[in-house]
Here is the input.
Amino acid sequence: MRPRVLVVDDEARVAGVVATALGRAGYECETCASGTAALAALEERAADVVVTDWRMPEMDGVELLRRLRARWPNLPVILLTAYGTIPSAEYRTYQKTLDGAPVSYTCPEPAPVAVSEMAILKGTPNLNAARLFVNWFLSKEGQIAQYVSDYAPPVHKDLQRKELLPFADQIVGKEKSMRDPAAEIEIQPKLLEFWESLWIRSGGKRR
Here is the structure.
């Protein structure tokens, strides 16, 4: 029997990409569009691991994690996030401009950095396939594919140029900085909640 993974993300395209990648690595996957749907799905059928987005409407990944820990304390949970800046990574802000929201990106000094994290699940029956996917993702081809998919800027050193960077004029040449992860976990959700209300009132769509 294949290990079962529950993928939770309010963006169907993202959930589909994660589920497809895990499926090719030998996992059975089910996707849910919300934390509420994920909890209901787990009551119907158990999973070996939950992979959830951090920032979602109604119930975010942190709240889902808290409820999962209370109900299934031994269930492994992987929390994903592409948010490395406050109020949002530049490519997320760029996505919102494409939705027609009256927003722009102002980059302070020093410039924040977005960080992508990936994990290979322990015990995967297709370890070589998982490693192959990670290597592809970090290659030039994989980085370009990610940019074409959601405008995430490539991290490959040979691809860090203006043509592949949203709001390039505001960012190129700025210094980079990293924040304390512990402080980010405590503070960032509050800032995102505040910024989201301003974003919705300005005419943006809830993502």
User: Anything to note?
Assistant: The mean pLDDT is 77. Residues 181-201 form the longest helix (21 residues). The radius of gyration is 18 Å.
